[in-house]
Write a structure and sequence with these properties.
- This is D-glucuronyl C5-epimerase C-terminal domain-containing protein.
- The chain has about 575 residues and is of the alpha+beta class.
- Helices cover about 35% and strands about 15% of the residues.
- A six-stranded antiparallel β-sheet has the order 14-15-16-19-17-18. A five-stranded antiparallel β-sheet has the order 5-8-9-11-12. Strands 20-21-22 form a three-stranded antiparallel β-sheet.
- The longest helix has 19 residues.
Length: about 575
């Protein structure tokens, strides 16, 4: 064997080694506000969120329920936008504006109905044929054609819009139903008319972004006139994040390159802001889209900026100042992780918004694992704190309506959790936190029971699909694929955060032989698990574990790591 031949054999071996070696460990990036949250929030209790979402669906979609303010659902026969009957859900318990005999049964909200359908789909409930109803088809009445906007809106028509939540005057209310509809359509597919509606929404959002041309300094956008509008509501520049989310989802679904360019344009408009313009719920979707574009399309958007804008909150004097993520302890309770006002009387968190944060941020770590520890730590705090919205999970002395909690069936929570009482009630002087809601302030004669929020509770399936307990208390298994809609082919992927200082051993089971690959450390952490196995996680660290078939061929390029040709890590 001559020396030249040996040389070429050695070169081939080195080349093969380089192409099959996993990536090196990533350099962690911190979200500063998350660092101020406790590693181990106290007191601690993790609910079975999957069960909570399943039970919510059973309680709410029950036309035969009896008792005060029940049933919580009714049929709307006005046939707005489409010649079909739709349904309404009470926004809050006992809402005097709503029901089959109020306002001709037409006042109900898409963020509630669509949220409930998404939640159900996330926990495996088929809403296309449930006791004779195709709720996914029925919800298409929110697609407003009669007014020429041709997008999903929060109500079915302008006639009832001024009775409550924003419609054609408050931008997030007009954008978010479309984000929700894309999720529902992915989870509950093959419904007549859905593809056409999604395509039309994408066209409208693409035209809107093109018209805005980087300037989102408006209170809302008229999708019929294709003009940005301004009113007394602060400008909502983070609507760009909602546009980006829908357009990138549309690109993944339909393959039209215009939608990809529109998604990029919207993210660039968001990042062009000089300060956080976080308004209600859309900003974190911008972080997800930016991270995914970087990973899949080779862009270089500043994900850290959007995450900091989300967690630190809006700082603009003319924006929704102080809207962000709470990091605090109120009374005897750690309440870090919930979303809402950081400054209103010391803090005011909201249930729906907190659920919705997890939707984009947990799958985001698949595309940018540098934030795995921060997002895992945030989620541990958020999931622990969120239970306090539920009347059976907070002491009677810290909630407004303990005597009425049975009506909630332990699935309908208070709308908000506030550091101090919002109503100046003598009994709550010095009490912190206080579970309550804004419902009684919305309209004269609204009952106190309107503090119980159906619309917020409707989004519980987000947590229900993502969160599972492990054998170690406070170490959660977070499913990174559950809300990663319109994704490419993927293996099961889970985020773990170890809040302890020492190494912990996590049990893992599989009915098929699998290896576990951690995309944070860039190495296999367990091999040939068949039945029961385990892996170890270092103290105060996070792992993003991908379950791949045992013995998979792992290959590395400059942009990604694949197993059997399927991407498991981007860098």
């Amino acid at each position: 064997m001559n020396r030249n031949y040996l040389f070429w054999i050695l070169c081939c071996f080195v080349f093969a080694s380089c192409t099959t070696q996993p990536q090196t460990a990533v350099k962690e990036l911190q979200i500063s506000r998350v660092e101020s949250m406790p590693n181990q929030p106290q007191p601690y209790k993790m609910l079975d969120w999957h069960e909570k979402a399943v039970n919510f669906d059973e309680a709410i979609f029950d036309f035969d329920a009896t008792g005060e303010f029940r049933p919580f659902i009714w049929l709307d026969n006005a046939k707005r936008n489409l010649p079909q009957t739709t349904f309404g859900l009470y926004t809050v318990i006992g809402d005097v504006r709503q029901g089959p005999n109020k306002n001709k049964g037409e006042f109900h909200e898409a963020i509630n109905s669509l949220g409930a359908l998404m939640s159900a789909g996330l926990v495996g409930i088929d809403k296309r044929d449930q006791k004779g109803y195709n709720y996914v088809k029925m919800v298409q009445n929110y697609f407003n054609t009669d007014n020429g906007w041709n997008i999903m809106m929060n109500n079915t028509c302008p006639k009832v819009a001024l009775l409550g939540g924003g419609y054609g005057r408050d931008w997030w209310y007009d954008v978010f139903p479309n984000v929700l509809y894309y999720a529902v359509s992915e989870l509950q597919p093959n419904v007549e008319g859905a593809d056409a509606i999604q395509k039309t929404i994408a066209e409208q959002f693409f035209k809107a972004d093109s018209t805005l041309n980087g300037n989102y300094d408006y209170s809302y956008f008229d999708y019929a006139e294709m003009k940005g509008k301004r009113n007394q509501i602060p400008y909502q520049q983070d609507a760009a994040a909602g546009h980006a989310y829908v357009l990138y989802s549309a690109y993944q679904k339909f393959g039209d390159p215009r939608y990809l360019e529109g998604a990029k344009s919207a993210i660039e408009a968001l990042l062009s802001q000089k300060e956080s313009r976080f308004y209600e719920v859309l900003m974190p979707f911008g972080a997800y889209v930016a991270a995914r574009l970087n990973a899949e399309q080779g862009t270089n958007y500043d994900v850290s900026k959007i995450l900091d804008w989300t967690f630190d909150g809006c700082t603009a004097e003319k924006g929704r100042t102080g809207w962000g993520i709470i990091a605090d302890r109120w009374g005897d309770y750690d309440v870090s992780g919930i979303q809402g006002s950081l400054i209103q009387d010391g803090g005011y968190g909201f249930l729906m918004n907190t659920f919705d944060m997890a939707w984009p941020l947990i799958p985001m770590v698949r595309y940018d694992q540098k934030y795995a520890r921060s997002i895992g730590k945030w989620m541990l705090n958020a999931a622990n704190s969120t239970r306090l919205f539920y009347p059976y999970e907070i002491p009677d002395g810290n909630q407004y309506l303990p005597e009425n909690k049975s009506i909630t069936r332990n699935v309908i929570a208070y709308e908000g959790l506030k550091k101090v009482d919002a109503y100046n009630t003598k009994e709550f002087k010095g009490v912190s936190p206080v579970a309550l809601g804004d419902g009684p302030n919305w309209v004269v004669s609204q009952p106190k029971l309107s503090m119980f929020s159906i619309y917020g509770s409707a989004h519980a399936g987000i947590f229900g699909s993502i969160i599972r307990k492990t054998n170690v208390e406070k170490i959660l298994q977070l499913d990174c694929l559950a809300t990663d809609f319109y994704k490419n082919e993927s293996y099961p992927t889970y985020l773990y955060f170890n809040p302890y200082d020492e190494v912990k051993k996590i049990d893992y089971s599989s009915e098929q032989g699998v290896d576990l690959y951690d995309i944070v450390s860039g190495k296999l952490v367990a091999e040939k698990i068949f039945g029961k196995g385990s892996f170890s996680i270092e103290g105060n660290k996070a792992m993003v574990v991908v379950e791949i078939p045992a013995g998979s061929k792992i290959e590395r390029s400059k942009e990604k790591v694949t197993a059997n040709g399927i991407v498991i890590s981007f860098f």
